[in-house]
Amino acid sequence: MAGIVIVGGGQAAASMAAKLRALGYTGDVTIIGDEPVPPYQRPPLSKAYLLGNMPLERLALRADDWWAANNIRLMTGTRVTSIDRAARQVRMGDEVLGYDQLALCTGAAPRWLPEGIGGRLPSVHVVRTLADVDAMAPEFVAGRRLVVIGGGYIGLEAAAVARKLGLTVTVVEAAPRILGRVACAETADAIRALHISHGVEIIEGTGLARLTGTDRVTGAELADGRLIEADFAIVGIGVTPTSALAEAAGLEVENGIKVDNQCRTSDPAIWAAGDCASFPTGNGRIRLESVGNAIDMAETVAENMLGAGRAYAPKAWFWSDQFDAKLQIAGLNAGYDQVVARGGDGQSFWYFRAGQLIAVDALNDARAYMIGKRLIEGGKQVSPDAIAAAADLKALMK
User: Which residue ranges run through the membrane (predicted)?
Assistant: First the structure.
C-alpha cells in the first residue's frame, strides 16, 4: 500500500483528503492521527462545546460513514514515530506504511507552565484537544474559582464560558495588556471592557510567580506578591508547532516545518499544511494558526500533489466568540502603523501599513468584516481618511 499518506488527524488532514477525492484522485489515501477519534472541529472546544451548547457528534468534520464511502483509510489513536525518506515509509512502532507522497499536518501543541512553578499540578489545564476539554469540563461548577494564565483568545474564550456558568474568574496577563501579540490596543480595550462588564477580573502587566498547591491548585502567586485564590487553572500562553517528526527526518524547520510557496518541504515527496507549517510571503516567512489557513493550505497541497503547481496565497480570516460578542478578523495586521476605529451597530478597527489597508477587526459588526475582507483580498486602495469618513462602507467597494 502506498499512495498518499497524511500524518495528523485535524482540519488540514480532513480538508486535504476531501480535496484529493474531489479532484478525482483514485489512489490510496490514508490519514494517521494520534487522537482516538476521527477529525473534528477545534474552535468550538473552548466555546460552544465547553459551554454545553454543542454535542460531541456535531464536532465531527465528516459523518462516520463518509470516510469509508470515499475510500479514505483512517488510522486513529496511532502515532507516527519516524519517517524513512529514502524508503518512502512512515513507521508507527513496529508497523511500516509506504507512501508515494506524504503530507505532514501535525498541528501545534500548547505551551505548559514549568513544572517547578506548579505547571503540572492535576488541576492545571490547557485547551487544544477534545481530551483536554473533556478533562477540564467537570471543573466548571458555579461558585468555583478559576485563574486563567494568559490573555490571548483561547484564555479569554475560556474565561467567558466560566463566567457564563457562574464561576469567579481572574485573568492574569504578564504583558502590558491582553491580546498584545495579536490585536491593536483599541481592540484590546473593547474586549477588556466586555469582560469587565461581565464580572471577569483582568490583571495586566504582572507575571505569575507560581501556582500554589500540592495535590491541586489552590491559588496563583503573582510576581508582585499578590495571591489569587483558585480551585483550578487554565493556561493559554500560546502553542508550539509540532515539527519534531519532520526535524528528526532531516527536513528543514524554521518556526515550524519550512515549506516553499507551493507548500512542499525540503523533500520533494513531502508536503506540510496547517499550524505546523511556515511559508513564504511578501513580508517574510509566517505561520498561521487558524481554521481558514488549515483548509486553504491543505487544499493547495492536494492540488499541487496532483500537479497544479499553484503558489499558496493565504486569505487570512479568524474569529472569536466571547459572551454575546463575535470578533471577526480579516487580513494580517503585522507591521501596522495606523488604526482607524469606527462605531455603528458594533465596533470595527481598521489596520493600515504605509497607507495600505491590511486588516480589520470587527466586533459585532459582520458588515464591516465582510466589506473589509473583500477590500483586503481584492487589493483595493482605500485610505485611512476614507474609512474614517465613509457614511456607508459599501460605497468604498465601487
Answer: none
d(CA 257, CA 246): 7
CB atoms within 10 A of CB 154: 23
For 227-239, the pLDDT digits (tens) are 999 999 999 999 9
How many beta carbons lie within 10 A of that of residue 20, not counting itself? 26
Contact 185, 95 (CB under 8 A): no
- Report the distance separating Cα 381 and Cα 355, nearest Å: 9
Q: Which amino acid, one-letter code, is at 316?
A: A
* Helices assigned H by DSSP within 215-347: 244-248, 291-305
Q: Rounded to whole angstroms, how far apart are CA atoms 241 and 4?
A: 22
* DSSP codes of every residue in 262-294: TSB-SSTTEEE-STTEEEEETTEEE---SHHHH
Q: How do 145-149 and 168-173 pair as beta strands? A: parallel
Q: Comparing C-alpha atoms, which of 237, 218, 253 is closest to residue 118?
A: 218
Query: Closest Cα partner for 242 from 79, 30, 5, 116?
Result: 79
Rounded to whole angstroms, how far apart are CA atoms 120 and 109?
A: 15
pLDDT bin (cut points 50, 70, 90) of residue 283 is confident
Residue at 18: amino acid letter: A
Q: Cell 501545534 sits at which residue?
A: 108
CA distance 87 to 103: 16
Q: State the chain's mean pLDDT as an integer.
A: 96
Distances in Å between the alpha carbon of 95 and those of 31, 78, 79, 88, 98? 15, 10, 11, 14, 10
How far is the C-alpha of 298 from the C-alpha of 20, rounded, in Å? Answer: 10
Q: Write the burial class of residue 25 (CB in 10 Å: 0-12 exposed, 13-18 middle, 19+ buried).
A: middle
Q: Report how far apart, in Å, the C-alpha atoms of 379 and of each of 14, 277, 358 are.
A: 30, 25, 9
pLDDT for position 282: 83
Contact predicate 373/317, CB 8 Å: yes
In 3D space, the residue among 367, 271, 364, 375 whose CA is nearest the CA of residue 321 turns out to be 364
Which cell goes with 7? 500524518
Q: What is the DSSP letter of 393?
A: G
If residue 60 lies in a helix (H) or strand (E), which one and from where to where? none
Who's near 282: CB < 8 A, 6+ residues apart? none
